[in-house]
Amino acid sequence: MSLRRLLLWFSPFLLAVALALLTLVPALAAVPHEKAEPAYAEEQTILQSEQGLPEPGRGDAASGRRHFDRHFIKPPGLMPEQDVILQRGGNTWRVWRNGPLATLAGTVLLLVPLGIFGLYRVFGPQKIEGAETGRDIQRFTRLDRWTHWATAITFIVLALTGLVVLFGKQLLLPWMGHALFSWLAIISKYVHNVAGPLFILCTLAMFFTYVRRNRFERADWQWLKAGGGLVSHAHVPAPYFNLGEKVWFWFGVTLMGLLMGITGLMLNFPYFAGDTPGPGFTRYLLQVANMLHLLGAAFYIAFAMGHIYLGTLGSPGAYRGMRHGTVDEAWVRTHHELWWRQIVARERGTGGRR
């Protein structure tokens, strides 16, 4: 394989890495005074007393040593800020997390399934053209399916437990009561923390299992111009994976998986930067990671809803391929005609159909 083709294959992945890293750049600075929202009068007094002082960044030698301006977290025994009870901008994070960000996440997670339901009711599913032939064609191998379902199961576990952590106090606590909800919340927290690293491993396996079949091709442009036939139900020839599936792979599984993996590990292992004296993760960095994790999760779940719909009700016969590994030839000819032509040409070259 030439270097040019290799770079072409991995260019979306490299772009995803670059975008994920760029989102963390603003977190390297301390929280500015003017952007901090005080929670108590004492914090307001502290912020006023620090007006005009320089803003120490993450790499500043003074950072973590000024009064009430210590952002570095250390393991027990190496925590010079254990007596710090207020952190500039701490309440800013709380206000944004429980206010605009939670509202945006909830809105997205309500509107997307409503939109999918409307799409199904108005335009209906993408039906197979003609009758089924009764001839099965292998769509996915056992490794393909195991990798997919391992990733899907851990994703669902993380989604459900994450929703409990984010919205539980507002939606569940009032009718469950404090005793029952406290158990649900603590179980959700620990299950989320354990499932997170497993999901990262599954996502890596998913990437390397499916990356070869998700290269962008010239035919994808025709699929895009026709909107995939979602609304018009027009026949659009597509390769093994159509453009919609490739977008899900590169910007859902890869980009969002990368963002969720990086921020999740930071939040799961705040002391991962080391247990020796010196800089570690700042509180501000972890707060930014938490907000990115929240937003990323909301859009990842919304994106997954569309993927689930198109893999089940939206395209009858598609679920069978991921469940049993095979699909009917008529389904292949309808939804992936270019791949079907390759199968026919290969069979003709080897002496006919099996």
TrEMBL record:
Signal peptide positions on this chain: 1-29
UniProt keywords, alphabetically: Cell membrane, Electron transport, Heme, Iron, Membrane, Metal-binding, Signal, Transmembrane, Transmembrane helix, Transport
GO terms classed as biological process: anaerobic respiration; formate oxidation; respiratory electron transport chain
GO molecular function: electron transfer activity; formate dehydrogenase (NAD+) activity; formate dehydrogenase (quinone) activity; metal ion binding
SUPFAM superfamilies assigned: Transmembrane di-heme cytochromes (SSF81342)
Record-linked InterPro entries: Cyt_b561_bac/Ni-Hgenase, Di-haem_cyt_TM, FDH_cytochrome_b556_subunit, Formate_DH_gsu
Membrane-topology annotation of the record: Multi-pass membrane protein
Main location: membrane
Cofactor requirements of the protein: heme
TM annotation in the entry: 101-120, 149-168, 180-208, 247-271, 291-313
Domain of life, per lineage: Bacteria
GO cellular component, as recorded: formate dehydrogenase complex; plasma membrane
Entry keyword annotation includes Iron: yes
Pfam families in the record: Ni_hydr_CYTB
Ranges for domain Cytochrome b561 bacterial/Ni-hydrogenase: 139-322
Record-stated family: Belongs to the formate dehydrogenase gamma subunit family.
Protein name per UniProt: Formate dehydrogenase subunit gamma
Organism: Azohydromonas caseinilytica
Species lineage: Bacteria, Pseudomonadati, Pseudomonadota, Betaproteobacteria, Burkholderiales
